[in-house]
Design goal:
270 residues; two-stranded parallel ribbon; six-stranded antiparallel β-barrel; mainly beta
């Protein structure tokens, strides 16, 4: 399939998204009155984790500090994503025809503890993470393709999203929402959280620029389909200063090497 046809389908999905709007129920009462739904547009989770990385895992790594940061970020984001999904949120979402400029999606700060433990030689580092979903401020895009042959994708699989932003930095995380028709038009349930691993193209159609990104699904409690709504999240990770004489934190995890996806051309489902 030629890239021009793929990009045309992506833009068509974005334009179709702009026409939807939240509605009240048949009785005139907002569906958000249900206890499992919320009209609130901003949600936040925070967590602290401790990662332990052995010298063997760092063997052959050129930039040790960058690798520790990467693994710490992956670990704390995975916990935050799980916490978000446990909320089972159903939110009102109105995809906008407006396009954001360069959206800030990630920040990190702090100095790593460079000395390994004397007893084990392991590098032990604590990280504090925060993940923010702001439906009112973010630009809502759409899932426009799946990497695999089929119509749905689950955890550790990849999908392709079109986001109405002019540029997008990495790392960026996105919340993937599924339409909840029984709640009313314009209401969506959070079904998965993924990481944008590569930005492929800048798309233009009139006044609606967009980017097409590869997204690896990190956590999911619902299968992702073409047409699901994608909303960028803001994530922050910072180093927590440790007392080297203190015992290990209760939420310490052993970090294993992470599979780095290869880039493939999107397969768009009509």
């Amino acid at each position: 399939m030629r890239m021009g046809k793929i990009l045309g389908l992506c833009l068509a999905a974005l334009l179709a998204a702009c026409s939807s709007a939240p509605m009240q129920g048949a009785d005139g009462v907002s569906p958000a009155a249900s206890s499992w739904m919320t009209p609130d547009l901003r949600h936040e989770e925070s967590a602290q984790v401790t990662v332990r990385i052995s010298p063997q895992e760092l063997r052959g790594v050129v930039d040790r500090d960058a690798e520790i940061w990467r693994r710490g970020r992956q670990t704390v984001i995975a916990k935050l994503a799980t916490d978000f999904l446990m909320r089972r949120m159903v939110l009102p979402i109105t995809p906008s025809a407006n396009t954001l400029g360069e959206m800030e999606t990630y920040s990190q700060k702090g100095a790593l503890t460079v000395a390994p433990e004397e007893a084990t030689g392991d590098f032990v580092q604590s990280f504090q993470g925060r993940l923010v979903l702001d439906v009112g401020a973010a630009a809502a895009g759409r899932v426009v393709g799946l990497e695999t042959d089929g119509y749905m994708a689950g955890s550790q699989q990849r999908v392709y999203v079109a986001l109405p932003v002019q540029s997008l930095g990495l790392p960026t995380y996105v919340a993937l929402f599924k339409a909840q028709p029984e709640a009313g038009e314009g209401w969506y349930r959070l079904g998965a959280i993924g990481e944008v691993t590569q930005v492929n193209e800048a798309l233009m159609n009139g006044n609606i620029p967009a980017v097409l990104g590869n997204v690896e699904i990190l956590m999911a409690d619902r299968e992702t389909e073409v047409g699901d709504v994608a909303i960028p999240l803001f994530a922050s990770v910072e180093v927590v200063e440790q007392n080297r004489g203190a015992s290990a934190a209760s939420d310490e995890v052993v970090v294993t090497p992470h599979f780095m996806p290869t880039v493939t051309e999107p397969k768009i489902k009509k």
